[in-house]
Automatic annotation (TrEMBL):
Originating organism: Yoonia tamlensis
Lineage: Bacteria, Pseudomonadati, Pseudomonadota, Alphaproteobacteria, Rhodobacterales
Keyword vocabulary terms for this entry: Aminopeptidase, Hydrolase, Manganese, Protease
UniProt GO molecular function: manganese ion binding; metalloaminopeptidase activity
Family of the protein in this entry: Belongs to the peptidase M17 family.
Name of this protein: Leucyl aminopeptidase
Amino acid sequence: MLLTFAADCDDSIPLRVVDHAALDAALADLSDAGRAWAQAQGFTAALGQVLALPDTQGAIAQVLVGYGTANARARGRFHMGAAAAKLPAGTYKIVAGLAGPDLEEAALGWLLSQYKFDRYAPAKATIAQLIAPEGIDAEKTAIIASAEALTRDLINTPASDMGPQELEDAARALSGEYGAKIAVITGEDLLTQNFPMIHTVGRASRRAPRLLDMRWGETGPLLTLVGKGVCFDTGGLNIKPGASMGLMKKDMGGAATVLGLAQMIMGLGLPVRLRVLIPAVENSIDGDAFRPQDILTSRKGLTVEINNTDAEGRLVLADALTYADEEMPALVISMATLTGAARVAVGPDIAPFYTDSDAAATALGMAATTVADPVWRMPFHTPYETLIEPGVADLDNAPGGGMAGSITAALFLRRFIDSPYIHFDIYGWQPVAAPARPKGGVGMGARAILAALPKLLDL
C-alpha cells in the first residue's frame, strides 16, 4: 500500500494544533465568533480533542486539535494519527502548533493512520488527507510509511496465502522495484549447499523451505539484515496449544520487518551495500518432522540438541547468520518473533534488542526516542551460557527451567556469528488498536534502526 501526502491545493482546511498550555493564546487568535464557538463547544485542548470552526457559510473555516499536556502525550504516540481519524472529509494543512520532531511524528502518524488491510474485504476509504507540512522531508516520510505498510501487509496475510513461496514472491517484487538482485536456495538444495537446520525445520511441510538472499548497492559498508521467516509455526511435534497457535501467521514478522527496513534503505538511496537473508519455512507436523532429542549439525559445524521442536526460529536463523558472517559484514542485524519471554519482559509495544556494543545501544536508544519507535536493550548475559550447553551436544535449542528465555535464545544466536551483531526479539503484532496502529501486524524497531544507521555504520 502506498501511503503519501495530498497535493497542495487552494481549498485546504487550516489545522491548528493547540497545546493545553497555549489554549488562551490560541483562543485569542480566533475571531470573536470563533472564540465564542470554541468556548460554547467546550474546547479545552485536551489530547485528541477535535473541533471544526465554521465560517459564515457553514463550511469548515479551520480545525482545532487538542494536544493536551506533556504528561498526557507521554502516555502514547502518534496522537495526530488519532485526530485524523476523527476529522470530516477534506484536505488539511497544519498551520500552527507543531515543529521539529513533533511535526515529523505528526506527519508520519497521519500517514500511518491511513493504513488499511483490505485484501479480503473492502475497507472504508480514508477521507482526511494531509498536505505535507513545511519543514519535514515529505518524500522520506512517505517512503517510511509505505515500507511500514509493506511489513503490516505481509504479517496480516494468513499463512494460506503467505507461505515460503509467497514470501519469496514478495521479496522478488521488492527487489525488482529497486533493482536489487535475489538468489533463492530451495528444498533439497539446502542440504547440498550446507544449510541443514533450515532444511530440517521446513522439511515436513509440502511447501518447500528456502533461503532468500537479496543484495542491493555497490558501494559503502556491508549491512546484512537477517529475518526469521517461519510462515506458520505449529510447534512441530511439540505442538502448540490452540490459544498459542492462533497468531502464528505472524511468525514471519522478522522477515516482514527486514523487508520493510530494506525498502526504506533502498527507497532513500542510503550509501550502503545491503544484503537481506530470510530463511523461509513452515514448521509443520508430518512423518518427516524433526523430533525432540534429535541432534542436528549446523552450517557452522556446531551440534544442536533439540529439546523442543517449537524453538525452531533460532535454528533457521543460526544457519543464515553463519552464512552472513562468512562475508565479514560491517554489521549484522537479525529480527525475529523469537520468544514469548521477550513479550513478558517488555510487553507488545517495545522492541527489545541485544548487542555487545555500548555505542550501538546508545545510538539505537537515542534514535528510537527521536522517531517514536521504542526499543529497549536486553543483556547478552554471558554467565547464562551454561544454560544452552547440554553436554551431549554443543548447544541446546530449548534449555529447561523456564527462566531467561529471551536471553538464552539471543546467546544461542550469538554462537553463530563473530561480526558486529544486533539481535531484535520483536512481537510484530498490535493486540489492541492504538493511534496509527490498527489491531494486527506492525513493524517494530525498523524506524529506530534506520535513524541510527549513520552512527552504527559511520555513514
